[in-house]
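Propose amino acids for all 167 sites.
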């Protein structure tokens, strides 16, 4: 198998500090490097649809809800790990672009629901296709069983390190 930059990094540590077990770095450093590369690929694919990554995140969150394609602003902020103030700014921007609209929440007098506009629906449906194509290109070197094993390993890591559902 072909070596990569991480193999070189690990070998240097093994030579300099042979008493250290650097095997976990083989995974974490590769994930960090892949994350940088994939974020760049994602941004490029979404720019073709006229979106920034954060815009895609909000719009796709609404699109995945099914009809009527809306959520309370507090839930969007929570899912995006953002403060309500930061989410308000983002929603303002998307509303100015005609991609979302705000409506009073019928279940909460103080609440606001955000929903996709027709234009927002067209944009996000185009963007998801670009996003899926980019993801497929990124993972093309892995066969079906390798993809499944990689997905399972990453899920296991994410579940163990990520926030719990109660957070």
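Proposal:
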């Amino acid at each position: 198998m072909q070596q990569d930059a991480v193999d070189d990094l690990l070998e240097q540590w093994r030579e300099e500090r042979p008493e250290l077990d650097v095997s976990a770095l083989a995974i974490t450093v590769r994930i960090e490097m892949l994350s940088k590369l994939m974020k760049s690929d994602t941004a490029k694919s979404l720019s073709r649809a006229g979106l920034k990554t954060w815009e895609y995140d909000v719009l796709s969150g609404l699109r995945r809800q099914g009809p009527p394609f809306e959520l309370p602003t507090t839930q969007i902020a929570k899912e995006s790990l953002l403060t309500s103030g930061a989410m308000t700014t983002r929603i303002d921007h998307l509303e100015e672009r005609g991609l979302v609209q705000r409506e009073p929440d019928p279940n909460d007098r103080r609440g606001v629901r955000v929903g996709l506009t027709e234009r927002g629906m067209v944009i996000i449906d185009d963007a998801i296709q670009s996003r899926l194509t980019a993801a497929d290109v990124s993972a093309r070197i892995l066969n079906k069983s390798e993809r499944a094993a990689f997905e399972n390993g990453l899920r296991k890591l994410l579940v163990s390190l990520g926030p719990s559902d109660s957070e």
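The first helix runs from residue 5 to 16. Residues 6 and 29 are 7 Å apart (CA to CA).
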